[in-house]
């Protein structure tokens, strides 16, 4: 990552006795590279990983708990937003975030004006979202989609929007407190949220899978009026679509407010000890410092993971960032035992409904059953 390359010389000026070298792995090969290098003792001392991979990394023995000296439980709870708890397993914290993301609603103000909508007023409820999306959707004389009212890519942010926002908004809950049971079908909320989501393309026809490849690509090019995405795409919008006239707003709500939060975290690999462990701890402390978190906001758009940094007026009252930050108290981070399979199961279920016209309740029940099986398998292997 470019920003980390910029930060390394700063860190080494503060710690001239420590040398830091960054190695980048392609996203699709990342887990495979870690699985090969770390057990062989040839891997890095610190790895950057998606929080949803932490349970698998712990189970595989790739990482060690954060050192108490530098990252005590009391300090982590006091300094960081509650999403840091997603990195806690078996009573120990295994990774620390530099920055976090929440989902919010992005909307194209020019397309709002064109549709006769107030460009300074985003949809605030589920019903308003559909109402606005219908007015914003454009099709050609052959019925082909020209502009999406709201984007719909289930393997992008849609599956996060569902499990960590829509279910809670409908009055339900994602998983049990001990994180061993899927609760999606424990109340009617899970199915209601699932139907709301699949109705967007299947019934209302205001969004379409694979339209302009990705949700954010369609939005940046002006072919989508509304998209649900994280603060982390702000840097890309600034770079790729500097003239895009857009706004942000909290996620549309229903019975309650909720959003999804996620993060990439840094962990220390197993086997690192002595002077190397001390050096790795110092580098993690540097990456989570106020100065570095502020640079992360400016360069990437991700939110500070520490409460006192994020809640500064310059961020909390920012016209773009504010929508993300004000949702942090209502944010949830799903406990992934297998992020790839849980996501793929969700995509398969929505495809059955949207593409194959399957019964939503049947597809939903099958989805819960498959994901519960993943949980059962994971927990059966824990000591």
Describe what you observe in this structure.
With 383 residues, the chain is an alpha+beta fold. The chain is 44% helix and 13% strand. It contains 17 helices and 14 strands. The strands form 4 sheets. Strands 6, 9, 10, 11, 13 and 14 form a 6-stranded mixed β-sheet that branches. Strands 1, 2, 5 and 12 form a 4-stranded antiparallel β-sheet that branches. The chain has a two-stranded antiparallel ribbon with strand order 3-4. A hairpin with a 2-residue loop joins strand 3 (88-89) and strand 4. The longest helix is centred in the last third of the chain and has 21 residues, at 360-380. The protein is globular and about 70 Å long.
Descriptive keywords:
single chain; 383 residues; alpha+beta; six-stranded mixed beta sheet; four-stranded antiparallel beta sheet; 17 helices; 44% helix; globular
Overall outline? globular
Q: Which regions contain 5 or more consecutive residues with pLDDT less than 50? A: none
Rg, Å, rounded: 21 Å
The overall pLDDT average reads 92
Number of helices, counting only DSSP H or I runs of 4 residues or more: 17
Cα distance spanning the termini? 36 Å
Secondary structural class: alpha+beta
Task: Give the SSE map.
Layout: H1 2-14, H2 30-37, E1 46-50, H3 54-60, E2 63-64, H4 73-79, E3 88-89, E4 92-93, E5 96-97, E6 99-108, H5 109-114, H6 126-136, E7 138-139, E8 145-147, H7 154-169, H8 189-202, H9 215-220, E9 226-230, H10 234-240, E10 246-249, E11 259-262, E12 264-269, H11 274-287, H12 290-299, E13 303-304, H13 307-310, H14 313-316, H15 322-325, E14 331-332, H16 339-354, H17 360-380
Parallel strand pairs: 11-14
Antiparallel strand pairs: 1-12, 2-12, 3-4, 5-12, 6-9, 6-10, 6-11, 6-13, 7-8
Helix pairs in contact: 7-8, 16-17
């Amino acid at each position: 990552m470019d920003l980390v390359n910029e930060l390394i010389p700063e860190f080494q000026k503060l710690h001239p006795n420590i040398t830091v070298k960054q190695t980048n792995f392609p996203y699709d090969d990342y887990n495979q590279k870690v699985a090969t290098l770390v057990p062989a003792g040839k891997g890095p001392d610190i790895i950057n990983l998606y929080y949803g991979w932490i349970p698998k990394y712990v189970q595989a023995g790739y990482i060690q708990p954060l050192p108490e000296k530098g990252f005590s439980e009391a300090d982590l709870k006091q300094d960081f937003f509650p999403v840091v708890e997603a990195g806690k397993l078996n009573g120990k914290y295994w990774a620390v975030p530099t920055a976090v993301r929440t989902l919010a609603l992005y909307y194209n103000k020019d397309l709002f004006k064109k549709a006769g909508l107030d460009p300074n007023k985003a949809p605030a409820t589920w019903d308003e979202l559909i109402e606005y999306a219908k007015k914003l959707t454009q099709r050609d004389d052959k019925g082909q989609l020209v502009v999406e009212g709201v984007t719909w890519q289930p393997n992008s942010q849609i599956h996060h929007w569902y499990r960590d926002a829509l279910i809670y908004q409908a009055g339900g809950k994602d998983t049990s407190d001990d994180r061993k049971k899927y609760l999606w079908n424990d109340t009617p909320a899970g199915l209601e949220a699932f139907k709301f989501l699949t109705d967007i393309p299947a019934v209302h026809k205001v969004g379409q899978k694979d339209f302009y490849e990705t949700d954010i690509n369609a939005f940046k090019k002006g072919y989508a009026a509304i998209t649900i995405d994280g603060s982390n795409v702000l840097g890309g919008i600034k770079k790729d679509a500097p003239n895009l006239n857009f706004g942000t707003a909290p996620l549309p709500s229903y019975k309650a407010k909720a959003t999804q939060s996620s993060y990439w975290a840094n962990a220390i690999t197993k086997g690192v000890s002595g002077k190397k462990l001390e050096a790795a701890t110092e580098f993690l402390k540097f990456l989570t410092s106020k100065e570095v978190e502020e640079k992360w906001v400016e360069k990437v758009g991700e939110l500070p993971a520490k409460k006192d940094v994020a809640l500064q007026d310059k961020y909390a009252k920012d016209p773009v960032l504010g929508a993300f930050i004000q949702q942090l108290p209502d944010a949830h981070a799903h406990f992934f035992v297998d992020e790839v399979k849980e996501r793929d199961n969700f995509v398969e279920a929505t495809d059955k409904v949207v593409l194959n016209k399957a019964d939503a309740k049947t597809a939903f029940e099958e989805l819960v059953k498959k994901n519960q099986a993943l949980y059962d398998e994971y927990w059966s292997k824990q000591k």
